[in-house]
Amino acid sequence: MKIRKWSAGEAVPRDLLLLADPSPEFVEDYVSRGECFIAEADGQAIGVYVLLPTRPGTVELVNIAVDEKHQGKGIGKRLVAHAIQQAKSKGYRTIEVGTGNSSIGQLALYQKCGFRMTGIDRDFFVRHYPEEIFEQGIQCRDMVRLSQDL
Predict the structure, then answer these.
(1) pLDDT tens per residue, range 51-77
(2) What is the rounded distance in angstroms from the CA atom of residue 88 to the CA atom of residue 72?
(3) Cα separation of 128 and 140, whole Å?
(4) CATH superfamily of domain region 2-149
(5) Calpha distance 121→142 (Å, rounded)
(6) pTM, two decimal places
(7) Cα dist. 133→4, 20, 69 in Å?
(8) For 85-121, b where at least 16 C-beta lie within 10 A, e where not — what string?
(9) Where are the domains of the chain?
(10) Helix, strand or coil, per DSSP, at residue 120
(11) What's the burial of 123, exposed, middle or buried (CB within 10 Å: 0-12/13-18/19+)?
């Protein structure tokens, strides 16, 4: 597997991005403002993430997704590690990420990768998404914010 930066001339890996964020409008917005990186194996996109500068010295990992057929193989962890390295190499001092309260696997992954919880944006998903989101039988209501000092 190799991870490379997405080029503006190629098709955006929308299907992968929509695995992590069901809002096509949000995806289009942050892909246009951030940097998108693609994990490929055998010429196929199997993972993706987007880094978005938010304020001086800080970048946010706004989307990270792995194709369902390739989940559970450590690809997500490698993508997070790559994102952290990219943020460091670009001189950022902090990397942030937000995920749903119902995203149990993602919360575990981010903490294993060195992120610490910094806050909760109550009812974020209720306010910003027109349809209810459920994961593992839990309604996704709140955005759990995490960060890591670089």
Answers:
(1) 999 999 999 999 999 999 999 999 999
(2) 26
(3) 12
(4) Gcn5-related N-acetyltransferase (GNAT) (3.40.630.30)
(5) 6
(6) 0.91
(7) 31, 11, 22
(8) ebbeeeebebbbbbbbbbbeebbebbeebebeeeeee
(9) 2-149
(10) strand
(11) exposed
